[in-house]
User: What shape does this take?
Amino acid sequence: MGRIVGIDLGTTYSLIAYVDPETGKPRCITGPYGDTLCPSVVSVDADGAVMAGEAAQRRLLTQPERSVYSVKRLMGRGTDDIQEELKLFPFRIDASSGNVIRVKLGERVLSPPEISAFILRELKSWAENFFGEPVDRAVITVPAHFNDAQRQATKDAGRLAGLEVARLVNEPTAAALAYGLHKQQRGRVAVYDLGGGTFDISVLKLISTSEGNIYQVLSTNGDTHLGGDDIDNALLALARGEIRSHHGVSLDNAPEALQDLRKALIAAKHELSSSDSTTVKLTLPEGGVYQRESLRTEFDELIRPIIARTMGPVKMAMKDAKLAPPDIEEVVLVGGSTRIPQVRQAVAEYFGRAPHCELDPDEVVALGAAVQANILESGVKSMLLLDVTPLSLGIETMGGVVAKIIPRNSTIPASAQEMFTTGVENQTAIDLHVLQGERELASDCRSLSRFQLRVSPGPAGLARIEVKFLIDANGILQVTARDQRTGGEHSIEVQPSYGLGDAEIERMLEESIEFAEQDFAQRQLIEARNEAETVLHATERTFQGEEAGELDAAERGHIHSIATQLRAAIAGTDYKLVRARTDELNQATQHLAELVMNHAVQAAVQGKRVEEA
Amino acid sequence: MSVKPQTAQVSAPCWSCQAEVHGGHFCPSCGRILPLAEGASYFAFFELPSRLLLDESALEQKFLQLSWKLHPDNFVRADEFERGLSLDRASQLNDAYRTLCEPITRVEYLLAHEGARKTGGAKQQAPPELLEEVFELNESLDELRTARAENDQTAELRQRLVAAQSNFQENLNEVDAELKQAAAEWDELLETDAATGSDAGAMSREALMKRMNEILNRRSYIRNLVNIVQNELAQD
Assistant: This one.
């Protein structure tokens, strides 16, 4: 078995961490550029080869149509869900998208879990280089407010990346774990996590017991589509509007300039966390320069509504935890967007105390994931996480009304049993619709899946099938059914409403191996071509030398014809053919090579004699 | 119908070492986690008698202790069968704690487990003593909706609703006190029987469960009214 790691699969950046066995402390692993942050960007080059991280991010500017960022926003969602995002993000959605989105990247069409898998693979390679050992298991973090489909998609991504997902942990909970370990603190803690694309608030109770510390999540709330991205988009909208009105230039058909502008605005946003003003400058595609001074006060005004949107979930989480702001003893900030002074101020005002931010808000989630990975790995545990499910689980009843069977903020694993029977005579199947959400009507909740319970025909009400709905420690639903009359397990057909089916995952796994083979073939071809070029070059050089004159015409003709065949092979893509022709050329030029060698030896011997003389 | 003694468990051989096991979460002989006993109550899960006024902080302590032992984290390296047992037991623990830590859900659960919970159906009858108030409430709600539709002044109507809300809230508090009283009576009956080792209180308990069921139905009716008013007031 290989190593286990903790991974924060973020909207903008992803990180990988481990627990140092020497110090017992979690640490983030750096990539080839010495940075712990791996941009969550994936890009496909003209040969179909895929890259992720820093290399892909650079291509975001030069080849935006072959690159994708913020793919986390698409995880576990269908085309109907993302119409709003499409207005703001340059996702190229393939026409084949339905309940799973397919993104076009160059010639390839990939689902969000497949794209995320490339990011995970990149991180995995960082860790494998660092350890010099394979990594095959991971704890991966997800926003606390992620629903079942979004969690399942994350788990699928891990599997596609060759990682066994030992546990999905909620991001704020992971942060609390890293923080608690760091501070050895007790009491009630609120974690305010404003990341690149998601917002979470979790309220926890840190308890000391004789066996160890328990981190009990009391409640969680959030918005899976609220984060730094929204701030960037607000800035982008403002700047584009100004460019249009002041310069008469539209950036609608200038993806490169748009990415440049986005980059400049993000830099300005970062700058405004520490200074009161900054300057944004962009050379426009049709000449001219857009330049403006941005003030902190102006920025604060722009993002006020975004910060206000976080306060609703904060109040809900506190209400569900049955706590008032003064009951909270510590407030922890997580996520890059909490570097913004106005965010810190809003949090401090609500809770009436200054929030903690000693740990790097970018790294703290990955560090917590590593701690949980270590707990699962080592037989002896010194702490325990008790997390909750963020959304109520329900089933659709008569008239499209949802009957809640597991309330939100239930500690997981959690379960509910329901008995089902037939309503009419000779009914052969009972249809069930499982949903997640807080609304009354099924149409307002998130559809998770539809199940069919097959029953043998008989009088109405005779069948008695007990269905157990269980939310596991990852927050993912499992359903089993039992025939009460026979006591036997009852088969159910599961159709996930969103997300990939098992067969599809299998196919993707096979494809990923196929692609790995393709990538291997690509590398072989490059190496074979290089070698062939070297041999061809050497042959041409010796052909021009005096030794070539010693070959007869037939031999020269033979070498010439094989060299021509090798050039043809190099132009093709079959590396085996290139190798074979290279070998043939080596064979054919052996006599010539011997002649060259003899001449050299003779020259050397003669030289020596001269010296000796 | 009778109240099952909560400590009694069906004896069965341990799945792993075949030793005779009488309840509990782990086999006393080999220490392996045991499958859930069929039909065991949430009270039995915590090895508690089915008292209704239980010590909530003691329950929490027990919950934390059991979490430490039963959580799937402890079974990551176990085989699929044992991992399944841990998942079943850990989820049962959380379900049981979630249900028993709140006084209302605790009573609801007890009645449901004893087969004594009879809900009033989808369209519940208004409790007779509230008939007049419910009638007035419906009138005020109609007036408010009409006023809102016609863009008329709603301030006075809203005030009436706020008053009605606090009135119903008071009713709710009264019902809760009534339920608490019944719960205390229940515990007393259990204690007397436990002390005398008899089942003499069975009849009284049955009557008491019927009463508690009626209180719960009244409670859910009033609770519903409070929610309706809250939702209506939240609309402006």
In short: Residues 54 and 101 of chain B are 9 Å apart (CA to CA). The radius of gyration of chain B is 24 Å.
